Inverse folding.
């Protein structure tokens, strides 16, 4: 990815990433943003070098299985969560 690039999944959109590697060549990219109502499926993939590898908004659907996050400022961030199962710490740095 080029510096500053961001993948955006809009409210009725769906993005599937399977057995892929997303990374920056030089400076960090912004990452994947899933808007309210959007869907992201990430399977057996690697996401590197992003400011926010995955940024999910409320009522977005995130399915993340067997993925690895390296050299990201924040691996996973949930914005404005509405789930009763939401934890106090919505960002995960792994």
């Amino acid at each position: 990815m080029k510096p500053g690039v961001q993948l955006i999944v809009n409210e009725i959109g769906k993005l599937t990433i399977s057995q892929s590697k997303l990374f920056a060549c030089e400076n960090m990219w912004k990452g994947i943003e899933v808007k309210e109502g959007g869907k992201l499926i990430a399977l057996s993939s690697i996401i590197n070098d992003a400011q926010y590898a995955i940024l999910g908004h409320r009522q977005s659907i995130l399915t993340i299985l067997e993925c690895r996050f390296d050299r990201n400022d924040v691996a996973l961030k949930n914005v404005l969560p509405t789930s009763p199962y939401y934890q106090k710490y919505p960002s995960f740095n792994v």
The radius of gyration is 12 Å. Residues 88-94 have pLDDT under 50 and may be disordered. Residues 6-79 form one domain.
